[in-house]
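Sanity check. The docking grid for 1,3-dihydroxyacetonephosphate depends on where the pocket ends up, so I'm generating a full predicted complex first rather than guessing from homology. Inputs follow.
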Amino acid sequence: MKKKVYLGTNTKMYKGIADTVVYLEELCRLTADISREALELFIIPSFTALESARRCAPEALVRLGAQNMGWEEQGPYTGEISPRMLREVGVSIVELGHSERRHVLGETDDMINRKVLCAEQQGLTILLCVGETAEEKARGLADEVLRTQLKAGLFGVDPRGTERLWVAYEPVWAIGENGVPASSAYAGERHATLRRTLIELYGPEGGSRVPLLYGGSVHQGNAVELSREAEIDGLFIGRSAWDARNFAAIIREVLAAG
Ligand code: 13P
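Predicted complex below; grid placement will be based on this.
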């Protein structure tokens, strides 16, 4: 019997307030009967939709996350949003190091590490995203990249901090319109590398409790197979989860197969 399954989506820069509310209300209605003991459902909307999202979706059904965060509690950082501000609107998860933040917006491992440490201090659950580019994969560097991103991103995190740490493996070449999903075998191997690295960093207890999620072109046709891999504890879905009916169908299929 598998542990709790982690299923969630990041709506990127697509849904505004009205769309987020309609989506969340429908998703809550369609999944209300599913026991949350077996399912950790989380949604990561745009910043502006967070407060409305919290009002329309009870925490007992859906945990809410932010797509990014500044690395101080407050200060002269124009345009940044601090963990304290996120907590104020009912957010308990922060997604850090998504591929688009690293590769489109120029975030470095060092910036991500500062955010990780700040989120840890503020008691937020960290969803750290890691993943190799197509070029790195072609050169046989995938595992090295994953180990580096993990070790650099988590530098200074206390073993107790792993209680509130999730890691998403999202190969850059698998994400978005032009992405090709990783095969379950390939994803399973990379997840095994991540698990070994976490155990190296935090010992068997701390390293084993961190949920590992796969993301990158997950859809109804591959979700079950991916979720059956030993070290895949959940799925982090983009496009295929942005329609509530579609997402609810994936959730039911993955839970039924578990
Ligand atoms: P897609 O599922 O649309 O490829 O996006 C994945 C992703 O970026 C989740 O964070």
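Relevant for the grid: The chain has one domain: 5-257.
Also worth noting: Residues 116 and 126 are 7 Å apart (CA to CA).
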